[in-house]
Design goal:
88 residues, alpha+beta
Length: 88
């Protein structure tokens, strides 16, 4: 899977504007926003502002850095392993 990040300004209800559009194999999969000083100790973390398909989440995660965010996205979008025919 090819993940591509494209910088974008994002309008939020707080001062958070630094964002990234995340494309998975050319399709928009998520929007990440870097948390501003308005979030206190969480300043600088990346937040899943919007996730589409399997990335949609009722409790969007926060990530320490972009590597962690990309790892999580890749895991969520990875194909499920085929069922084990030996299991009932």
């Amino acid at each position: 899977m090819d993940l591509t990040l494209q910088p974008a300004r994002v309008r939020t209800e707080t001062e958070d504007e630094q964002g990234l559009l995340v494309f998975a194999d050319g399709a928009l999969a998520a929007v990440l926003v870097r948390l501003s000083a308005a979030h206190g100790e969480e300043e600088g973390l990346w937040f899943l502002e919007a996730g589409f398909g399997r990335l949609a989440s009722p409790q969007p995660p926060k990530f320490a850095d972009l590597d962690a965010a990309q790892d999580w996205i890749a895991r969520q979008l990875a194909p499920a392993p085929p069922p084990d025919p030996r299991q009932p």
